Amino acid sequence: MILIVDDTPENLISLKKVLEKNNFEVDTASSGEEALKKVLKNAYVLIILDVQMPGMDGFEVAEAISGYSKAKETAIIFLSAANTELKFIAKGYSSGGLDYITKPVEMNILLLKVKTFYHIYEQSRKLKEMQDSLLAEIEFRKEAERKKDEFISIASHELKTPLTSVKGYIQLLERSIQKGDNETVRKHLAKAQAQLDKLNSLIADLLDISKIESGKLKFNKQNFTVDTLLDNVIEIMNQSNPSFKIIRKGKADCEIFADEMRIEQVIVNFLTNAIKYSPGTTEIVITVHLKNEKLYVAVKDLGIGMLPEQLEHVFEKFYRVEETSQRFQGLGIGLYISSEIIKRHGGEIGVNSTYGQGSEFYFITPINLQTEE
Ligand code: ADP
Prior knowledge:
The chain has about 375 residues and is of the alpha/beta class. About 50% of the residues lie in helices and about 20% in strands. Strands 2-1-3-4-5 form a five-stranded parallel beta sheet, sandwiched between helices. Strands 7-9-10-12-11 form a five-stranded mixed beta sheet. Helix 2 runs parallel beside helix 3 and helix 4 runs antiparallel to helix 5. The site of adenosine-5'-diphosphate (ADP) has 22 residues, from helix 7 and helix 9.
């Protein structure tokens, strides 16, 4: 917007008319004091300022404006009676642009100058926008880099832990074999096996992440029965976590067209998290039902729960709740992979949780049955 400051009403009106005819938005002030008030309130691209005014003259107005942060980028065109007055112009006014026109105003020249200032203003606004978006991009990349570094360090640690255990069990096994103690051999073997399973699933998750990144996560979709899958998963989870009781509610006695192993992976991820993040509790409830050709599966625990601002991020890559990340091992990728799997099945994943009381993770996915022709 342009502000015209002139104490002669005829000048104000005629300038305003010409500028508005040329599609500029115009505001007016009939004294220096009024102009200052307006500059404090509004942002102007350009001020056309009459030098000779009673009260505050044009130079004094310019000098005062130079101190306003709001008018930092504002340019000024002085309307002066004679060139000699212009030696005062630069005084105290360093930013924005400055120019002058002698009176009587030659409208074409004024318009040319106004257009030039607008052009410069537009260009510097675009430059500033570009600079801002570049700075935001740099910040985003720095943060991503930091998260990746942190992830590499956690991942190495997570991989090393089961590996060190396996090494330990193998040493123990050697001794037990030498002693001919078969019972202990069996125990150590089972423990080494459990650690290897852990290692295997960690590496599988890492591979999934790189497949997702490169768009190579493939699905092998077939018709399968949901209830059978659930029975198997619950049985295995109950066996490997004897201190927890996984209770099933509801039925989904139907087939679904999906990647069975991937759907199982999501349910196992929900259950493993429910167990991991619920120390001191013993019950997990898995609810399943069918509605409108959609399968609903939810896993509810009575564990540590999460705060609303943490819930927003749980499905993001590498996200772990900071406060509890030291207490529980993990890579912060399980839920990200789960959400990719569900989304790629055309479904929806979500969570409800209350801090200190527990969480419920769920997914809803269309059954999309493929019928043979
Ligand atoms: P990980 O468990 O390996 O850290 P996930 O992607 O499975 O990674 O989970 C991301 C984060 O979400 C976890 O670090 C944890 O802070 C939070 N979270 C996941 N499941 C639960 C749950 N059932 N209860 C409370 N917090 C959970």
